[in-house]
Amino acid sequence: MSAPLIEMRGITKSFGAVKANEAVDLSVAPGEILGLLGENGAGKTTLMNVLFGAYAPDAGEILVQGQPVRITSSADALAAGIGMVHQHFHLAPRLTVLENLLIGIPGKGGRIDRAGGLARLAEIGRQHGLTLDPDLPVSALSVGEQQRLEIVKALFRGARLLILDEPTAVLAPSEVDRLFSALRSMAAQGLGIIFISHKLNEVRALTHRCTVLRHGRVAGRVDDPANTTSAAMAQLMCGHEIVPPARGPSTPGEAVLTLDGISTSNHAGTVLRGVSLAVRSGEILGIAGVSGNGQRALAEVISGVRSPDAGRMTIAGQTVSRFSPREVQALGLGRIPEDRMTTGLVTNLPLADSMVLPRIGTAAFSSKGLLKPDAIRTFAEEQIKAYDIRCPGPMTRAGALSGGNLQKALLARELAFDPKVLIVSQPTRGLDIGAARFIHEKFLDMRAKGCGIIVIGEDLEELLVLCDRIAVMYEGRIVGTLDSADATIARLGLLMTGAEGRA
Amino acid sequence: MFRLEVRTSTPTWFNLALPLLAIAATLVLCSGLIALAGAGILESYGVMFTASLGDSYAITETLVRAAPMIFTGLAVAVAFRAKFWNIGAEGQLLAGAVASCFVGAIPMPGALAMLLMAIAGAAAGAAVALAPATLRVKFKVDDVVSSLLLNSVIYYALMALIEGPWKDSFSGYPISPPIEDSANFPVLIEGTRLHLGVIVALIAAPLIWFLIARTTLGFRIRVTGENPEAARYGGIHVERVLLSTALLSGALAGLAGVGEVGGVHFQVMSDISPGYGYSGIVVAMLARLNPLGVVPAAIFLAAVMTGAEAMSRATGVPAFLSDVIQGTALLAMLVALLFTAYRIRRVGVAT
After folding, report:
1. Of A343, A358, A397, the CB nearest to B229
2. B193 in contact with A at a CB cutoff of 8 Å?
3. What is the CATH number for A54?
């Protein structure tokens, strides 16, 4: 094999007493797709930030094509041919695709080289199937297209090594296929790619080799991911075996949540068209669908933040009249939001505040307008212990916790009040295997206790493991509901594309 | 070479030391201007200190000046906690002054007059603050711009009043008629100007701290400010919280005006506030939006203001230095705040 495109040797980086990386070695050859695996907090992001110049390592060196280089900023990284696509995109939403590409690129004689940019964009699009309309503003692009633009941006700046941090977390299945074929095409042309993901089936399908991190060190390497089982890789990541939770037979009872002909619209048009469904106690109902087919609006209606234009909803037999978060919560609804950071938590305030937020006005945490600081603190401390939330204490800034611990905190704050119905969206997005496993177990516990659960998700494998029934949404309607015993990824996938007919 | 690196946590001592660092940096930076004016740096700062905090009378004068800035500082701190960008404390103060002057001129028992002055002033300030908050909640109008511009509207309305109906027909000066003698706030220490309003201001700070830290309204204000979406999903009526915050903020700024009318000037004139509303922003930022921190921050700025005048008389350095110190302190604090989120790290020099 030719000399490595990039080589990291003995990288060590500490934050205070915590060693985020310890003597990590990693290399990528031209044309190679390297999977970088590890649980949350294993040091993947720190390592990539060192490579991209955001952190200076305490020890170790980085070699680009055999030459030691010093990378102290993203500009240095770009000059060394390293491009990074972050989980959160760095794009200017009001500027067009082409303008975003040309930011920071020296033009000709003080003028922007529009023609040159267009030519390069077309060339990159042709080579790798990464086509984009140059004149569309970024705000008009879908998430998948924005990601494509980030990749094109890196290639535009001459990247020979591309780092992708959990690129598939935001994509629909069809977009994932398209991304993978583009990545394969880039590798075929001699680019190196580092692919960070929690989804082991994707890692096995795409990568040539994997480096696994655990507690900041290299826990192992996988030379033939395609022929290694997911279980073996999971074991390397966690240090112990992971068994998927078993969903026992359920004995569904009364309907705890019913929707009857719910329709809503926004300025863009109708988003829910007469949705009717029922969740019984002791049952987990999955809602599958390509993102953008009304799932978010459905979650908003059920959570009480959006009033439907038509239709009726009941919780535990009671008709919801005013559609406010407080009303649905008082009737017994618990909610785990899709986006922990934006609609769930308050990252700049203590964790305890986020944990009592939805119930701050109830007798548990306040009386006559005065907070009960001791009750709030005790509640948070109990939940931190019960859910093994890793943090220094209830007064820690919520934003300092890892995704898995935040998800546990959100789960704790709802489950502590024994909801009759629980609505969750993308419950394990971005979580590592251990944390996801924990969340799944909790759902199954709640199911056994007679809670009715709705899981909105795009990860079909997860839905098949977890749910008793799976309903598929397409263009604001439920186009079919399958018992999970009869459901397969293929049948669900067909319904998700809007193929009509009884499944 | 140095570069900024994201901090994972900020030590507590650092948070406390930050305003002091900012003030120290300000004094160092401004000493250049003193040198430029041809005066001794230590001598000038010495005069400033003695004149503002050197003896008990100086301290009472500084406290009298600090009182309105405690109120406007609290007004801004409360508003900024909810991310209601109230830059209009100046106008709210003026509205409070006019309303309390109007009430204070009506003959009635002193205690009742003072109470009604406070209520009227607070209500006027709250009403003025409600305008930009309503525009933001209903029409998404930028509250920075609307609250700032409203200051001019209120100022010129006040001018119209004292140049028109309130004009002193005898002397022809543009000043309002004085309030009733019985409505003058009692002086607490004979021979000084330390009036009842100063004590009210000092009591208001811990009360507002309690409101923010220990009440459900305060909780809702904090959560709304930090993440309105999570607040909405958590069952908080974000619009209602913003409007309540505006009312509270405006009322506090209005009380600053009440104190100036009832305790210091006993009437309204065009320069009743030397920009106490704007100083409130500096005070709130130095206090890092903590109501308890507002008191020392306001006393610092008041000391600079009183001290600068004495320094000007003694050394010839223009008293405008006080404004420069205020502005520099705000900038220094904003820069200092950067270091709560980032730290400076030395990067080895490239070979």
Report:
1. A343
2. no
3. 3.40.50.300
Q: Among candidates A261, A268, A264, A272, which has minimal Cα distance to A309?
A: A264
Rounded distance between C-alpha atoms, residue B262 and residue B198, angstroms: 11
> How far is the C-alpha of A406 from the C-alpha of A427, rounded, in Å?
11
Q: How far is B234 from chain A (nearest CA, A)?
A: 4
Measuring CA to CA, which residue among A44, A153, A457, A129 is closest to residue A285? A457
Average the pLDDT over B94-120 and give the result.
97
Instruction: Tell me the pLDDT tens digit for each residue of A136-154.
Output: 888 888 888 889 999 999 9
Domains parsed from chain B with CATH numbers: 2-346 (1.10.3470)
pTM over cut 0.95: no
Q: Which of A356, A380, A413 is the last residue before a domain boundary?
A: A413
Do the interacting molecules here have an ipTM over 0.90?
no
B149 interface with A at CB cutoff 8 Å: no
Residue A373: CA atoms inside 13 Å, Cβ hemisphere, count? 9
Chain A residue with minimal CA distance to B10? A397
Chain B: nearest CA to A358, how far in angstroms? 4
* Set of chain B residues whose Cβ sits within 8 Å of the Cβ of A345: 227, 230
Instruction: Give the total residue count for chain B.
Output: 351
Residue of B nearest to A71 (CA): B350
pLDDT of residue B351: 37
Interface contact flag, B233 A348, Cβ < 8 Å: no
- List the structure tokens of B187: 């002086």
Domain range enclosing A277: 245-332+419-503
Burial class (CB in 10 A: 0-12, 13-18, 19+), B276: buried
Torsions phi, psi for B231 (to 5 deg): -60, -45
Distance (Å, whole) CA A47 – CA A211: 12
Q: Give the number of domains in chain A.
A: 3
